[in-house]
Amino acid sequence: MLTLYVIKNCDTCRKARKALDGKGIPYQVHDLRDDGLSAALLEHLLHKVPVMELLNRRSTTWRNLDDADKADIDANKARKLMMAHPTLLKRPLLDTGDEILVGYRDGDYDNLSPI
Q1: For the chain, how many helices (H) and strands (E)?
Q2: pLDDT digit string (tens) for 79-93?
Q3: Please, how many CA atoms are within 13 Å of residue 81, restricted to the half-sphere of its CB?
Q4: DSSP 65
């Protein structure tokens, strides 16, 4: 079954859910804020998506970080920040089993089919 990683008050996450529901595609939801982010889950995501591609530098969480945390960002520092602040992950993230789709724009899920 597909897993959609979201933050429930995120408008883009709502659009992604609506798209999956409209296609009749079953999925489970994992709210990064409510359900958390374990080290194992982060490593699972990073196995399929480069760490810097997952880091959401446009988020409110990123903007509220200390300048020292944002300076000289590299993969290790980004990984540590994501563990401390799961809302730094770009979202939604759709885990299809084969790949992880990062973000959502209209039409992104058109190639998915109900199981």
Answers
A1: 6, 4
A2: 999 999 999 999 999
A3: 29
A4: S
pTM of the full structure? 0.92
Return the structure tokens found at 115: 């199981």
For residue 73, the one-letter residue type is I
Catalytic residues: 10
Residue with tokens 């079953």, as numbered in its chain: 26
Domains of the chain: 2-102 (3.40.30.10)
Residues 6+ apart with CB under 8 A from 88: 55, 56, 59, 61, 62, 78, 81, 82
CB distance 38 to 79 below 8 Å: no
Structure tokens at 53: 């591609």
DSSP 8-class letter at 31 = E
Please give the span between the terminal C-alpha atoms of the chain, in angstroms, as a whole number: 9
